[in-house]
Amino acid sequence: MMRLPLFQFRAPRTLEEAAHILAGEGPAAMPIAGGTDLLPNMKRRQQVPKTLMSLRHIESLTKIDLNATSSSLGACLTLTDIATDPRFRNGLTALAQAASQVATPHIRNMATLGGNLCLDTRCNYYDQNYEWRKAIDFCLKKDGDTCWVAPGSPKCMAVSSTDTAPALIALGARVRLVSSAEIREVPLAHLYNNDGLHYINRRPDEILSEILLDNLHNWRSTYWKLRRRGSFDFPVLSVAAAVRFSSSGSRPGPASGPMSGPGSLIVEDARIVIGSTASRPLVTTEAAKLLIGRPLTPDTIAEIANQAAKIAKPLDNTDFDLSWRKKVTAEFVSYALRELADQDTSAERQSITRLTPPAPQFPILP
Questions:
Q1: What is the distance between the alpha carbons of residues 143 and 95, in angstroms, rounded to a whole number?
Q2: How far apart are CA 99 and CA 79, in angstroms?
Q3: Residues 178, 71: Cα–Cα separation, whole Å
């Protein structure tokens, strides 16, 4: 049985008190909310803080403020809070879908939005118990000198496995980081580095307190996830897409007439994010630009899906064959865009839970 190491426990009641604790304790202290990621890591000795500081009793971190101009979400909202709240629909659908697909109901009842955004990167060589990792002389991410995924690489290749980050990046989210010295806001996309070891731009003395969203009028969004089982597993590929349609309902130009349905409306803005193929969520800027000024027709969707998939370069550090994961990226982007075009993708949603790669072809020996 894996046991937790010894640690001190602090339970502040205000955000200011929490920030002062982190400032005083230094890097040896870590904040904890649901603990669904941190506590298993501590049992495997991947993270060994001397002090855990609970955020569960800070009321301001569980507030929801949704309005027409801007919105804020407390970082300690549970994933169940988000997945079951009917207000997280239309523009915010991607976030609700991402939250609802994390792990199991029991874990979603504990896991928080902020915790999922700060989720530790994962790798087949890292997510093992201490004795297993010691047997291979550890790895670059913890206690070792070599990234076993790419032994010649100077940086860690552990992969980002957060579900909610791609969804919120597609929604243009920002995050508020609070310390005893300052409060700063950064675009969520800028919170992450493409380095499995130094994967997040949050200082040890900072608390991710809020997620901030601008007006999402006329936006539609969706989230698609690939994993071996239909529940529990981390994503090995995810796609979040959000588009803002024109409010006129017609194509530009004198010869065009009014049309109905999202699939015939003109895209005014778009964001597509690929998750779980690198150490950070990847924003497909060029592919999204190609959508602007066009309707979501089948030809357009196919073109954009192929363009977006170019950014995905998965490595052999998680489940499934990496070449197959690369191949299906375009398919998942097309699923997302088809859903935003109001096409029926329910069959694809159901089939994903049973989606498996082709069996490897071994040579026939004489």
A1: 35
A2: 5
A3: 18
DSSP of 79-121: HHHHHH-TTS-GGGHHHHHHHHTSS-HHHHHH-BHHHHHTPPP
Q: Tell me: the pLDDT tens digits for 109-158?
A: 999 999 999 999 999 999 999 999 999 999 999 999 999 999 999 999 99
Instruction: Report pTM.
Output: 0.93
Question: How many alpha carbons fall within 13 Å on the CB side of residue 201?
Answer: 14
- The tokens describing 143, both together, are 């206690």
C-alpha span between 292 and 154 (Å, rounded): 38
Gyration radius from the chain CA atoms = 21
Domains of the chain, each with CATH number or no CATH: 224-355 (3.30.390.50)
Q: Which two tokens stand for residue 319?
A: 């489940």
Please name the residue that has the structure tokens 């597993």.
233
Q: Which residues, 6+ apart, have CB-to-CB distance to 361 below 8 Å?
A: none
